[in-house]
Amino acid sequence: MTDLTLDRVPGASVGDYLELLKPRVMSLVVFTGLAGLVLAPGHLHPLLAGVAVLCIAVGAGASGAINMWYDRDIDAVMARTAKRPIPSGRVGAEEALGFGVVLSAASTLLMGLAVNWTAAALLALTIGFYVFVYTMWLKRRTPQNIVIGGAAGAFPPMIGWAAVTGSVDLPSILLFLLIFLWTPPHFWALALFRNGDYTRAGVPMMPVVAGPEATKRQMLLYTLLLLPVAAAPAFVGIAGPAYLAGSTLLGLMFVGCALRVLRATDDRPAKRMFGFSILYLFLLFALLVGERLISGGGA
């Protein structure tokens, strides 16, 4: 990895360190982790549930900080990331790395001591997978980077589930698969209209390597695969008819987005699909949580 020598502006602000945690990404991670906790059978004391959610948030942010440390060279040449704290010189690279490592260790240790070690092990696996497998190994080597690496973002509901149950069960695996299959069309939509950024940075995203048309076909395939997987929670006892109807409608809308992208001659449908993909995942998990809370369940 090419190293960068950047002049850091003295006195980085609290906001700069918060930005290292990728708060927008963290918010969706935290919500899906909370959903796993609410959907799990059993009971967890509200204080411990709060600790579990905090640990998921801090762990996700920590891995984001380490990712920014490692990717500081390519971040500097991409318009979307050039203003991040490290390439812009607001935070030093070593400070960012130390910040991420300390938060990673602290969140995992706290999860183990306060909640249970199964959840802590899953949290450690999530951080390690994102840092070592996705960021350091896959991202710069293969167009399948986001397919395999997407597993890191799919673990949070499993962590929330394990925080309550101390185990990994079929429903939590289905929640994992839902996010795992959602990730490629979500990120490839972004890569389509940010293709120039990834080309300049030398990151082999699917549109760069296989071309836009092949990418669009794969995006459609993944949205079709999502339809039965997103419906599956209704058949394993963690969701009901309202969720089933909502997930089917949202899934068909997602497929519709992919079809419009497939036929498109400009970037506008890809931009709309990227925006809708975030709403899609949020609404799916909101339906799961809402239905459970209305029915009187929850951790």
Description:
The structure is a single chain. The protein has 299 residues and is mainly α. The chain has a single domain (15-294), classed as Orthogonal Bundle (Farnesyl Diphosphate Synthase), CATH 1.10.600. It is 74% helix and 0% strand. It is built from 15 helices and no strands. It has helices at 14-20, 23-39, 46-70, 72-75, 93-114, 117-138, 145-149, 151-154, 156-165, 170-193, 195-201, 206-209, 212-231, 241-263, 268-294. Helix 2 runs antiparallel to helix 3 (46-70), helix 3 packs antiparallel against helix 5 and helix 13 packs antiparallel against helix 14 (241-263). Residues 1-9 have low confidence and may be disordered. Its EC number is 2.5.1.141. Keywords: Cell membrane, Heme biosynthesis, Membrane, Transferase, Transmembrane, Transmembrane helix.
Please give the structural blueprint.
Elements: H1 14-20, H2 23-39, H3 46-70, H4 72-75, H5 93-114, H6 117-138, H7 145-149, H8 151-154, H9 156-165, H10 170-193, H11 195-201, H12 206-209, H13 212-231, H14 241-263, H15 268-294
Helix pairs in contact: 2-3, 2-9, 2-15, 3-5, 3-6, 3-9, 5-6, 6-9, 9-10, 10-11, 10-13, 10-15, 13-14, 14-15
